[in-house]
Amino acid sequence: MNQSHQKAKTEIQPEQERVVGSYRWFTYSADVTGLRLVCLEDLTTGTVTTTAVANPARRTAAHKAWAGARQSRAAGMPWEILHEMGEKGVDPDQKLEEMFRGYGHASVGDMARLAVDFGKVPMHLCLALFHEGSLNSGQEKSTRYQSAFGRAILHPMRLYVPESLPQGDVEHLESEYQSFGVESLELFAKHKAALLRAFEQYYRADTTKPDQKSALTSRVLDCVRYFLLFGQWSGMTFETSARDWSRIIAELKASPLSYYQRVAAQIEKLLAPTGEEEEALDYKAEAPGLIRHTAPNLATNRNLHVLKQFLEEQTDLLQSVSILSGSPRRVDQRVSLIEPMYTEGDRLVAAYALLLWPGLERKQLLNWIHAQDGETKRAISTMIFSNHTNYCELPGFGRTTRMTLVMEGFLGELRDLNRHRAWGRFFPLPLVFGERLMRETIGQIIARGFGLPLYLTDIPAFADYKTAFEQDFVSYYTKLHEFLEKVSATYRDTIDYAFVLNLLPLAHRVDLWMHGDPKQAAYFTAQRSRPGGHINYRTLAYEANQLLAMYDPYLSGMRLPRKPDPMSREEFFDRS
Fold first, then answer.
1. How do residues 108-129 score in pLDDT, each as one tens digit?
2. CB–CB of 37/52 below 8 Å?
3. Whole-prediction pTM value?
4. I want to staple 287 with a disulfide (CB 3.0 to 4.6 A). Which of 61, 114, 177, 339 is the partner?
């Protein structure tokens, strides 16, 4: 537990605590936190989820949802509907239950909005939640503003290895695994100190001026965050509808990551506790009756398994399309636009294939998919759509369009750009959807390489710092390779290699596919190219804008006139 959390813990005491099985409930009164806060800690994982309660005596979200649902059948004005509910003593739980079971109107669940806060969670869980949400809003802790990232704790390896593994083996592995977190923070601190001096001199920062000092610190943190690891602790607030929460819970329960399955159960427990727990905590959950259909949604992952067997045994995919392998090296970021000749279906199938083999070469893969005969295409389509219905939808990455940008960037930028939720998005990491991670698969992910901040690669004055960054990353990946080889030699494929995802630095390359439309393209590229942002994603957004403007004469009017310039002192200090 870091020092800032310890300090807060001693100053703010919960009003009550209750341990039920592997969970610890605790609450804070409205006098302390403004709204009553109900908290649930999983004692096995250490993950904490909380939610604020607007009215401890009423199911506020359910009440609003039922009043909204009544609009379809009641002739009165909103205040008359709500008055009728109060006058008749309407129980929203009972009425919503009738709608769900009697009429099948699950859409009422979209009118109940619920916010959940997460603490002590790995960065990749935040990424996955933003990616899978469709109606959500929220914020994750930023590496730019959280000085505590200099002490970020690496998520325990024990949560990612089989429970059957002997305790002595787990402790030995954990010790070596945690050394990567220690090295990450050492590199973070070392390069932060060096870049602060270098940037201050190059950009002639006047640190007596708070705005310049703040900008300087932010730009340095934008760079040294590349040494932070994907599995280090973060936190977030995530708000979406009860119906969307139900879907997300069902998907997380089916994840190949066992930790995600536990988080799913914890979210469900927080939002839909038992009657006994509510009574003991004096807690009225906002809309427990709308947290429905939360059984593990296994359709997508089962379909992926069947598709894998088909592609391996009945096609020449793996003989025709090259797969990236070998040691990671430094790569440059870039943006690609998938050619319009590839259909929405081609793009969907490519995403499924990349979840199975993340190292497949994209252009060759799309060509292979597009060239298959009708019989093969229909067979693949049957596998992908099997068991999906209006109640069990395709995964979110099924929102493909003919306007697809591929942001060939790094995990740090992926965390930023993934939040543009109006876009259909896909990245080839098996967090929620995919098969259990094998040694070969994780090798393909690692082989993608790593990148550096454009301040270092594009400005000759920082050549020595670029070299230092690159050398430290090469050393880091060498150590990671040696650790993997040791684990592989001992356990082969009897162990799940998902723990390696935690050890990927934010400099690691992971492509983000963004399927959009002209409206979103104009907004996204203008929003993300502004001077206040990180130079790497600003440049990606600008290059995306130029590609789209050339792609279609009717889109040329959205062309941005000015390319982001890492050498510009004006832009460096501009926080707009």
1. 667 778 999 999 999 999 999 9
2. yes
3. 0.92
4. 61
